[in-house]
């Protein structure tokens, strides 16, 4: 039995439509006993079977939804975990009106072939793909077929014109933690940003967040992920001085090295901020240089419950991104109430100002196709992360 805790707290019900078995009526004729030997029975030639169409059978009672994820190649583990979680959501909700079929974006022909196969099978909604480059490849195919895309990417540049980005974006995480720090005494902000696309987006988000919060932007410096380059950049930033709060827009061992370098030159209590990347790296809590650091992310409380049930069903731990598959399937089930099977997906339903709830908490899509998420702020303390400002349960409008 599915855990009641793991189900999202939506106040709506699902129709349980069972498959009706049609029985043909048998028309019988009364047998007549012949007075003479009957003529030989001539067996008619067998009736040729109906032509079988390519793809999966047509389904007039359920909504066709395609899950586009890598089921082979280097990201196969993530794709399988997302697919497992999406099917869990269908089973948990009794969503018999939604049929999800998985297509391998890393198979022969790549994401474009997966998208074409899904459309040929009658899919009216795409959940996925995972990578932004895959979104760009299938976008023209989906738009021509008038099939919206709910992508698991966090690259906001692919959003719009029927494409919705559901991934965890760094900009929202940075804005949330900067606002919290500003409300709790931080005034002068600096940032250390890695080179690359993620760093560029983080830098733009940080500058905007500081301005929105009414803080003072002291400096933003980029660095290479090399120990000597990190030491050099931190020393240069320290020479400018004057900041009480600093963002490290990176995760893992790089964040640990940067934090250690900052603590080495700062004898006073500078506040360190991080991004959503830290949420999936609990080992950061073992690093003394990061104690007291703050970051914002989606809550893990409901995900932890889902993980326990996932392990029981699939005998393995899910990837953290599997929650996107679960919540995307929940979204499809919810919107199936106003969706006639075989008809185009009601895209307007995705733009509900009140938003939706799932494993990762409350979220809603804006007209630009980007999901806004309710995030919590956590502080790193010895051995664990502590929630210091819970995520809101919903949106006011």
Can you walk me through this structure?
There is one protein chain. This protein folds into two domains: 63-167 and 301-365, Response regulator (Rossmann fold); 170-297 and 377-389, Rossmann fold. Strands 2-1-3-4-5 form a five-stranded parallel beta sheet, sandwiched between helices. Strands 7-6-8-9 form a four-stranded parallel beta sheet, with helices on both faces. The chain is an alpha/beta fold and 397 residues long. The longest helix has 18 residues, at 76-93. Helix 2 (110-120) runs parallel beside helix 3, helix 4 (170-183) packs parallel to helix 5 and helix 6 (227-240) packs across helix 7 (252-265). It contains nine helices and 15 strands.
Which structural class should the secondary elements be placed in? alpha/beta
What's the domain count?
2
Oligomer: single chain
Uncertain stretches of 5 or more adjacent residues: 1-54
Strand % is 15-25%
CATH architecture assignment of the largest domain: 3-Layer(aba) Sandwich
Shape: elongated
- The CATH topology of the largest domain: Rossmann fold
Question: What's the order of the H and E elements?
Answer: EHEHEHEEHEHEHEHEEHHEEEEE
CATH H-tier superfamily of the largest domain: Response regulator
> Strand arrangement, largest sheet?
2-1-3-4-5
Cα end-to-end separation: 35 Å
Would you state the CATH class of the largest domain?
Alpha Beta
| Number of separate strands | 15
**Number of helices, where a helix is a run of at least 4 consecutive DSSP H or I residues:** 9
Biggest sheet overview: 5 strands, parallel
- The chain-level mean pLDDT equals 86
- Helical content stands at 25-40%
Rg, nearest Å: 27 Å
